[in-house]
Amino acid sequence: MKNYIKKMLLSALVIMSLGTIASAQTFPAQATGIFTLDIGNELRVLQTLPSSEIQGILATEKKEKLADFKGNYDKNTGKFEGELTYCQGKKEPLLFYFTRNNADELEVYFGPAGNDRKAAGTRKGRTRPTLAFNCVSGSDHTQLNEPFMGKGTWAGTWKTHLGMIRLIQINDVKTGKTFVSGDFENTGVIHLIDFSGNEVEGEFISSTKGNGYFKITRTSDNKFEGTYRWGSQTEWTQWGGERKDAKLPQLTSTGAQHFINRLLAGD
User: Fold this and answer.
1) Residue 73's closest CA among 50, 102, 92?
2) Would you call the peptide bond into 50 cis, given omega within 30 degrees of 0 as the criterion?
3) What is the pLDDT of residues 88-130, one digit of tens each?
4) Cα–Cα distance, 55 to 83 (Å, whole number)
5) SS3 of residue 148 by DSSP
6) Which of 122, 206, 218, 234 has its CA 20 to 30 A from that of 91?
7) Of the candidates 166, 191, 151, which has an alpha carbon nearest to the alpha carbon of residue 249?
8) Counting beta carbons within 10 angstroms of the beta carbon of residue 66, is it exposed (0 to 12), middle (13 to 18) or buried (19 or more)?
């Protein structure tokens, strides 16, 4: 009986050990591949075995480079830790983990711990990716947050009869919220307050005309229609616009930029 119990205990230990080994093997030995992110960009990762060093780029869907990255990958934990260097020279930490039960899924964290911004990634190819992409064109003041900006239904430069308006859409994957802000003419600030798909309400803030309000509906990918009024006016005037450029715009209003910076900082 004692021998039987000993054999049972030994069998259980062997099974537990094999289970631990199998669990450890769920992480891929090599991180090479192309990973699409739910924020609209992709990580292109290159690792040459037996080295644990990784290099790669963060790129847009249009095959433009946002940043270079390098670091080290630990196949025992499925963890990569390294640094992003954006096209304009700014640096920030990058951390990703392979999901234990799926060697083709990642959790990705940008920025320092505590203030990091999270994304999810799925491997779409295990082949050696090309890293020879040109840097994305755009403004340097938003580069630190480019993975989370520029992809959205309202982003870009729009022509209206009130002047040009420039909008930046921020998709906060950490909270699930979407923010849109920007400027118009040379000094005004514009905010979308109530955001519901194609229908939005917002506010103008002008140094010369005071505050104004608007209600607009995006009637197609690049056109909107709606109404606006200034200050205490009770009458609403017809208003419309057409998107002339979908690229991330360079804002001219420091007020708009400060507001966006506060959003990105979580204030």
Assistant:
1) 50
2) yes
3) 788 889 999 898 778 889 999 888 876 677 888 999 878 889 9
4) 10
5) helix
6) 122
7) 166
8) buried
Q: Whole-angstrom Cα distance, residue 168 to residue 47?
A: 35
- The Cα diameter of the chain in Å comes to 94
Q: List the single range of 55-64, 86-95, 131-140, 147-156 with lowest mean pLDDT.
A: 147-156
Instruction: Identify whether the C-beta of residue 34 lies closer than 8 Å to the C-beta of residue 124.
Output: yes
Cβ neighbours of 208 (radius 10 Å) = 7
- Cβ–Cβ < 8 Å for 38, 118: no
Residues 55, 199: Cα–Cα separation, whole Å: 42
Asked whether 216 and 239 are in contact (CB, 8 A), the reply is: yes
DSSP H helical ranges for the chain: 2-24, 254-265
Say if residues 30 and 47 touch (Cβ distance below 8 Å).
Answer: yes
Return d(Cα 27, Cα 94) in angstroms, integer.
19
Global pTM reads 0.55
CA 115, chain centre distance (Å) = 14
Is the predicted pLDDT of residue 237 greater than 90, yes or no? Answer: yes
Phi and psi at 240, nearest 5°, equal -155, 165
Residue 176 binned pLDDT confidence (cut-offs 50, 70, 90): low
